[in-house]
Design goal:
With 357 residues, the chain is α/β, with parallel strands linked by helices. The chain has a domain of 241 residues: Rossmann fold, CATH 3.40.50.720. α5 links the parallel β5 and β6. α4 runs parallel beside α5 and α6 packs parallel to α8. It is globular and about 65 Å long. The termini are far apart. Bound molecules: nicotinamide-adenine-dinucleotide (NAD) and thymidine-5'-diphosphate.
Amino acid sequence: MNRRLLVTGGAGFIGANFVHHWCQLYPSDRVVVLDALTYAGNRRNLASLEGKENFRFVKGDICDRAIVDQLLRSEEIEAIAHFAAESHVDRSILGPAAFIQTNVVGTFTLLEAFREYWEAKAKPSSYRFLHVSTDEVYGSLGPDDPAFSETTPYAPNSPYSASKAGSDHLVRAYHHTYKLPTIITNCSNNYGAFQFPEKLIPLMCINILLGKPLPIYGNGKNVRDWIYVSDHCQALDVVINHGNPGETYNIGGNNEVENIQIVQTLCQMIDELVPDLPVSPAEKLITFVKDRPGHDWRYAINANKIKTQLGWTPSVTITEGLRLTVEWYLNHRDWWESLLSEAYYDYYRKNYLQSQN
Ligand code: NAD
Ligand code: TYD
């Protein structure tokens, strides 16, 4: 095909998985990653691609219009897959400014640059701007509410989800106003390889291995709709190749699980796989802490549209996915150990959890 793709945030969790997916499936395409390498970005996530002819890594900020302009033109980019973001709710509660800057201003900068570039090329209809977003823009569900669909009104509750909602609205408006060929995807909670150990699943895996407390916010009954990251990447592939400009597609894993059940499952899996844990059984480490402010109760995705219109469904069950994830963290101790030395790993315990109870 020889397409030319710009992937923002490609050194982060989902972005890196997506880059590996794309390079493996479409080796004759060129993939250019633009990533600022914040605390969440890690060049090691892309190590196996370094030096490959069709892959290029550029360290840079999506808010830097000059870099974006230069890359679009020099690489003759045909599609942007936009992952770059500040992505963690807890951090957004403690420091929202970076979320507004990257998620809103950064997305605006990319949209403006891409619009000008696309217009100068006489508006090719095959070009794409894929905006990777979250189901958190829809707000919180009660236990019996129907799952989020593409027509659910936006009601973001955290600075993170509000900043993503703002960026979604800009992307939608650029299609409506300028006919820029944008597509938005709103996906549920991802898990899998390369996820930074501040999010629930990798944090719990690592704390079990280290014998550290497993902090459960509130009563642990909050529900998330988990999707294994490779399923998300496959869905994004289908959307780039077959999705319609101007559309939104919800992506979810059909796996609604309470947080406490996730943590108990991880404890049991790791108990079985690692006979000499520092604390065993690992469930002894479970510690209920004061709830996250504004903690959304439940997320659930209705993914019928992408299923019926584009033929995508998730393929990895939660048990298979958790098993693969646990094995990845067990086999990549050097990857996460190198992150532990950084002050940010204990960010919440120092800044937030320690002040609770
Ligand atoms: P992540 O935090 O792991 O990675 C974000 C990446 O963006 C990092 O590599 C970081 O260095 C880079 N980045 C941050 N600010 C930047 C800037 N100003 N310029 C250039 N690069 C910058 O995030 P993730 O979990 O991989 O999420 C990727 C995208 O998917 C985000 O847009 C997020 O909102 C969305 N999303 C995530 C989930 C999830 O469960 N993780 C679910 C749905 C949607
Ligand atoms: P998280 O991985 O931060 O994702 P999000 O807030 O975007 O859903 O959290 C997933 C769920 O797990 C959420 O309900 C908050 C909860 N949680 C804990 O109970 N303890 C923790 O240490 C973390 C990080 C999250």
